[in-house]
């Protein structure tokens, strides 16, 4: 079995990363890991400091503490960290409504009359509203930093039942509608470490592991149930697992499935070079 990094995430999987030490957010279909960015923001403070010494001099005592003026004004956190605190408040949630495409939502300032970014929950960088020669483009903003992307968030989740015909056990999983059968197998792996010892079928037909549930003819009928007033979970499609009488844990090293058929072809080294148009690796 080739274990791959998870590509698709459900909103529930993003929501559990909701602390400052483990912060994920979803933005325009992508899942961003903001943990390292928050750690960097909390270390920075651009405010002018004042010391706690009663007598101001060139030299401070060992017990001197630098105070940020934001605390004196009654803020519980530094004003320079306002956006970071807002990200923590939205940890595990979706931020797409902050943006229009890859840019912040813009509005016309009621006093200045210039078009500026609408930072409802804090500014992403220090930049004045009035046009100024000090304006500078933001280099590599956090919302466009591809190094923070850990995956993609699904447009819609769907339930699926997986029934083991050998043991009679049934597991119901919430999966992403964009995930292939192979990716769903990775979700099922904690429940059965010998998945390759089984044939995966739906209504008696073998499933193509590189196709999604819909592409394999497994419909999502929840909208139809809602239209006629039935509960969405009144029927959940079930994938049947049939035991193949072996204890295979991993497939052969060179294991291929044909593009157009459900037949398997095990290619030895060098044999598949002439038939790569019909054989694709799992």
Describe this structure in words.
This protein is α+β, with helices and mostly antiparallel strands. The chain contains six helices and 19 strands. It has two domains: 144 residues, no CATH class; 95 residues, Ubiquitin-like (UB roll) (Roll), CATH 3.10.20.90. Strand 3 and strand 4 form a beta hairpin. The C terminus is likely disordered.
Sheet-strand content, in percent, reads 25-35%
Poorly predicted sequence stretches spanning 5 or more consecutive residues: 251-282
Residues in helix, %: 10-25%
What's the pLDDT, averaged over the residues? 77
> What structural class do the secondary elements suggest?
alpha+beta
Continuous helix count = 6
Shape: elongated
Radius of gyration: 27 Å
Q: What is the topology, as strand order, of the major beta sheet?
A: 1-11-4-3-2
What's the story with the biggest beta sheet?
A: 5 strands, mixed
Number of E strands: 19
Element string (H = helix, E = strand): EHEEEHEEHHEEEEEEEHEEHEEEE
Intertermini distance: 9 Å
Total domains, how many? 2
């Amino acid at each position: 079995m080739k274990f791959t990094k998870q590509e698709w995430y459900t909103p529930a999987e993003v929501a559990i990363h909701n602390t400052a030490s483990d912060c994920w957010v979803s933005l325009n279909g992508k899942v961003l890991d903001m943990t390292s960015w928050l750690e960097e923001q909390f270390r920075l403070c651009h405010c002018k400091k004042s010391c706690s010494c009663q007598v101001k001099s060139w030299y401070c005592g060992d017990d001197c503490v630098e105070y940020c003026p934001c605390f004196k004004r009654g803020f519980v956190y530094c004003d320079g960290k306002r956006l970071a605190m807002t990200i923590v408040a939205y940890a595990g949630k979706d931020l797409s409504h902050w943006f229009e495409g890859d840019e912040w939502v813009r509005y016309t300032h009621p006093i200045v009359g210039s078009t500026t970014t609408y930072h409802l929950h804090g500014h992403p960088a220090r930049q004045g509203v009035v046009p100024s020669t000090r304006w500078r483009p933001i280099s590599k903003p956090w919302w466009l930093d591809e190094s923070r992307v850990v995956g993609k968030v699904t447009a819609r989740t769907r339930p699926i039942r997986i029934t083991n015909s050998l043991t009679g056990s049934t597991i119901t999983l919430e999966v992403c509608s964009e995930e292939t059968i192979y990716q769903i197998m990775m979700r099922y792996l904690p429940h059965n470490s010998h998945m390759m010892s089984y044939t995966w079928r739906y209504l008696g037909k073998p499933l193509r592991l590189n196709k999604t549930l819909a592409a394999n003819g497994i419909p999502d009928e929840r909208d139809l149930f809602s239209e006629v007033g039935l509960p969405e979970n009144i029927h959940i499609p079930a994938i049947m697992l049939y035991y193949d009488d072996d204890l295979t844990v991993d497939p052969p090293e060179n294991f291929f499935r044909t593009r157009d058929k459900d037949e398997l072809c095990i290619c030895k080294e060098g044999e598949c070079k002439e038939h790569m148009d019909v054989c694709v690796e799992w």
